């Protein structure tokens, strides 16, 4: 699926060559940027014996930017058009193109580039160089390829101003826009670094190039820490550093906390976000995730392959996460077009491939997940789509509350089981399943036993794993950009988002999108009758005493212990892991904790919260269907009710539609006042389909139930040792 490409082992080189003295120079002294770069790069393998290679479409400014970068670094500059092609051919590029024609020109251009031998230089490629594989492999070996990513609309304006109406490779009758779009696949294939160029001056782009190369060569600043790590630093030095590939593999921090980026998430400028307004969902995802995942962990071309595979034909809608107007100022972000009909697909079609790339091939891995309904089928489906070689060394097991999910959700989980993907019902609730998995992970005797006895390590697929949370940032950002693209708002205008949540992961992703520069005003936290989060946001008191989980019609948010809230508390506390540790110790020992006034004010500055009764949930489904013909699922209905109550209608509100109504057919039939039926899940979906609903019954869910109508599944008691027995049984059957 993903091509094998030889990449420089960046982190190893950085660790062994980047001295602490140099780090002090770069980050402590008030030295001018140019002086820093000349000092740092001259001795650290970018100039000296390596090249900075600028790549991008015609009109991207490669030549001008290259000259400025060369001046800043005081190094040679090579323009391929002027210094390689015309010198080799003894004629102009336009004359050569006229002489040999489009197809032969690309071959001749590639042959000329193969003769280039340079070091310590800035090289500006032509717009068509990346279309010749052999010459690009040759050039790439000599340095770092920087993609100047300029929006197509900007390129078209520049080319028009330059009176260019045809470029290399453009056949008669093919629009210039189409050939520019076609070329993007080659730029994505070869780049090491992407620089977003959105209305920036050439000088500003040159500085961005230098910053991007510095980031590429230094992964030391992109480490992760536990939410419970003390500021004094119990663990110091490079051996204690955790990188993206580490946290994907490990899932949960050794101290029981959750991993977060030590220096926070990157922030994109308004111009950079605006450059993505016309981009596809896949293009937006690649840009955002490249910013958040260092290429030492996953090189950009590999990441692009993963994203393209994740959001491909397995999504029913080509827009992946479309935004639909509902009524008034309310818009629906449809997150149910993936193969298992819930928002969990957005992370769990990506995360298994990230995991498979990051983990060592010398060890087997069993990935564990607890689910309140939607994660189960999504994690089983995602890991079952790995390459055969990866499925032989990576298996997944999902634990769900046996009586705490809808009949269709259970049928879907059972039907999603494959040779490396199994599901187990637990005679308890979701909170127990989640707590039991955390206990298993922190039981070093047990995990050590699995490693020694079976050569198998455990990993997590719940949103406690950072790789689960990260892809969710993308769709919140994309929804905002879609509203701008549809001329609903101008960029910079605020929106609110309303999200049904129990584990705080989805709403946390929206808060992260806000941190990265998306103009989200308020995040509205929508709870069902298990309204512990609503009470917490309103009072600052997280109190589990006397609470029992209430089974509702929206089971995916039937949660009392909200895992990802810990990450948000760590963020609000400005990285004070000691405080977070104290709060969660109080929760464990006393069943409650209370925020200080300052933290509560910060929380309420970002988040408002409300909850919805069962009756109001059903009434909302009926009301929306009666007035619009659209069917909300039960979780989206919860969010709709809360948005109606709390949002002030002074700006648009984007309601996250987190699951397809097909997963909750009995509740939908009840809400629509269709006679209650006692039929199997497949019959319920067929009945709903007969009403020609909008949106239609989910194709993937219907097919899964058709194929697996009579399959059975394993069930175990609410006992950690029972869960361990099922874990060992799968390890023995799959890996031995």
Explain briefly what this protein structure is.
It contains 34 helices and 20 strands. The protein has 736 residues and is of the alpha/beta class.
In words, what does this structure look like?
The structure is a single chain. Helices cover 48% and strands 13% of the residues. It starts with 9 loop residues before the first helix and ends with a helix. The chain has 736 residues and is of the alpha/beta class. Strands 8-9-19-14-15-18 form a six-stranded mixed beta sheet, with helices on both faces. The protein folds into three domains: 51-219, Rossmann fold (3-Layer(aba) Sandwich), CATH 3.40.50; 225-313 and 343-466, Rossmann fold (3-Layer(aba) Sandwich); 323-338 and 483-708, Rossmann fold (3-Layer(aba) Sandwich), CATH 3.40.50.1100. Helix 18 packs parallel to helix 20. The chain is globular. InterPro entries: P-loop_NTPase (IPR027417), Ser/Thr_deHydtase_PyrdxlP-BS (IPR000634), Shikimate/glucono_kinase (IPR031322), Shikimate_kinase/TSH1 (IPR000623), Thr_synth_N (IPR029144), Thr_synth_N_sf (IPR037158), Thr_synthase-like (IPR004450), TrpB-like_PALP_sf (IPR036052).
